[in-house]
Structure formats: structure tokens, C-alpha cells
Design goal:
With about 425 residues, the chain is α/β, with parallel strands linked by helices. Helix content is about 35%, strand content about 20%. The chain has 16 helices and 15 strands. The strands form three sheets. A seven-stranded mixed beta sheet has the order 13-12-9-10-11-14-15. α2 crosses α3, α3 packs antiparallel against α4 and α7 packs across α8. It is globular and about 60 Å long. The relative contact order is 0.12.
Amino acid sequence: MKPGILIATTNNWVATARLAIAMAEAGFEVSALCPPAHPLRKANTVSRAYSYQGLTPLKSFTRAIEASKPVLVIPGDDLATCHLHELHRKTKQQAHGSAVCALIERSIGSPASYRLVGERATFIQIAQDEGIRAPRTAVISTDADLRRWISRTGLPVVLKANGSSGGDGVRIADTAEGAHRAFHKLQAPPLLARAAKRSLIDHDHSLMAPSLLRRGRVVNAQEFIDGREATSAVACWNGKVLAGLHFEVLEKISSLGHATVLRRIDHPEMSAAVAKIAQRLNLSGLYGFDFMLAAATGDAYLVEINPRTTQVGHLSMGEGRDLPAALFAAVNGQPSRPSARVIENDTVALFPQEWIRDAASPYLRSAYHDVPVQSPELVEACLRKARKQTGREQPPMPATFVPAKYRPSSENLEPLMAREIGSRYE
């Protein structure tokens, strides 16, 4: 019998659907807790899907856990991780909650780390205590705090709000005036109109409570590091890194948005930093780490932890670089066996992200174009989402090389894609 996992997410990111496919290929039976319109429901490897209710999130999690009986819960976004933290805190106080607490601890690690991963300034201080290179970071509560920070550290300044991800809640200011404007915008509670739109259209209720309660966010100032962005995705087990992927970011959807093209790199300083944090916080499950590689020296500065899977967590790039396979091996007490679908091209163009950014991008041909060929319905869902985001009636689909046995047959699939795929395997 296959061990079951529950992928839990509160938003509609495609990355969690990609992870579901990879987890199933690694040997897990996959269930999902997600909003009603999530692409996870199009992934043909998801055996059961449960509805996430943003107004009663802990009940949603409890019902899905009781129904699916997973050996692991994999959070797909920061809010899902926060819900697991809160569920652990509440069930710990109940006599019958020990099994749920044990599941959460097995899935994401020691409860002693839960508060730390959500507080940016505290996390950076821990990294520095471990001897990890990291930019100075401090909580900014008032305009006076910000003036003192700029006086000591200079400009530009990076401002980040706790509880944000994917570039949402991050601003870089080159002037003092711009820094103060950004600070007030980040600190303010979400606008009710924005919260209502997110709730009604995206089925994401995460902004409703902060908006209605007029609850602002904690804002941090971080030292600006001139350099190139890099990221790590790792699978951990009881404080040990089982497998890891390290990438340099080549293209992004926007200056502060998520990456769309990445190149795998070997960087000993990044590997060492991730291993130290995993051990210090006794992490388990899937985590992401963001770095800046200094322009002048290439030194790696750890700038952030993502307490969840990231958009590259599904990629298999060989021994020690296959996160789903590593977790499956840990759960079963077996040696890790990487997926048969090993990506040999070090440069990866994420689908549909890079296509949305630039339909004529050369990376769509030169890089490994990460189309989920195993799930034609998910491809169609991604294409529909791309049309909605870009406003293109029939966006041009670049040549995508797909083995014949995985070719989508649906008549609703983009005609240009159906014509152009497959030439490498003819």
C-alpha cells in the first residue's frame, strides 16, 4: 500500500499541482486540500481533493487530515504553513490531539522553529549566529525607526512585510521619501476592495480578517545587497538535508516577482548555509531559501526562508537532487531512488511562467521547457490561466518537445501547441 500525503494550499499556484505529479511518481498516493478552482484538481495523479474554506481554515485542515490519513502534510504556501502551526498549537492542548501534532511535526519539523521561520528579522539573526553570511535586518515600527535605519545603513533599503511571499510585500526604495511611502503602504491593513476581490474571484480569504480587523503587518528593513538572485529548494528530515537544488535566477516575471527561468548551480556556501539552518531549526519536509550572490565576490547572502515547497520542488535533476524521491525514501526507510525523468539541461524555463513573461523567449527553446506532459488536463488549465493573465486569444505556443505517448489529445488544447510538440521524439 502506498504511503499517503496531503498537499495543502490556500491559493491557486500551479507549483503545487506540479509537485503532486512528482510526488505520485516518487511512490506516494496524493490527496489535496485546495480552493475549488485550483489546478491541483486537474492533476491526474491526485486521488482525492478536499475543499479549503478560508473562513474556517482549521476545520478544513482537520477534515482533510482525518479523511486522507496522510503520513505527511506538505504546505504549498506560507498561509498553509501558518494554519499548520496554529492547528498544532490548538490540538496540543487537547487530549486526543497527539496524533495530529505528531503528523505536523513529522511533516514540517520541530515546533520550536514555527515562530522563527515567520519572523524575518529573527530568522536572519539566527543565521548570523550560525556564522552564515546574511544582510543586516531589523523590525521597523515607526518613521523614526526607518530614519535611524537609513542613517546607519544608507540607501537603497529593502522593506519586507512578514507573512508575504512571491515578491508581494517587498519594496526597494532608493530615496528616503520613497522608503517612507513604501513603509506605510506595507504596514497598512489590506484594502477591503482588494480583500473582497481576492475572496470572490480567487476563493482566497486570507486577506479578509486583516482587512476587516484593520490589522497591519510587521515591516522589516534589510540591507541592500548588490548582486544576482539565487534560490535553494531542499528536502529535510529531522534536521538533515536529504536532497537539494540550487539555482541562479536568470529571468523573473517582474523585478520583485517570482522566477521564470533558472540555472542549476553548485555553490558550497549556499549548501552549507542550508544545512546549518536545517540542523539548527530541526526542519523536516520541503523548504526554500533565497540568496543574493554578491556582484563583486559571488559570496552568498541568505536573505529569506520559505517554510513550504517552492515552484522548483518537483524537478528531478539526479542523485541528491530529487526532493520527492528523498522524502519517499525517508518515510519508507529506504535508499533514495531518483525519478526516471531526470532533467539533464541545467537551465529550466518554468511553464507557464516564462511563456507568460515572454512568448518569444529564447529560453523556451534552449532551456528545458518544464511542460507537465504527464497531465494534459493540467496543461490545458495552465493555458487557460495564461490567456486570462495575458489577454491573448490564442497565445503563440513555442515548440515543446514531448514524447508521443504523452501527447495531449483533447480538442480544447491550443492548436499551435498540438501541432508543434513532439519533433525531437519522432
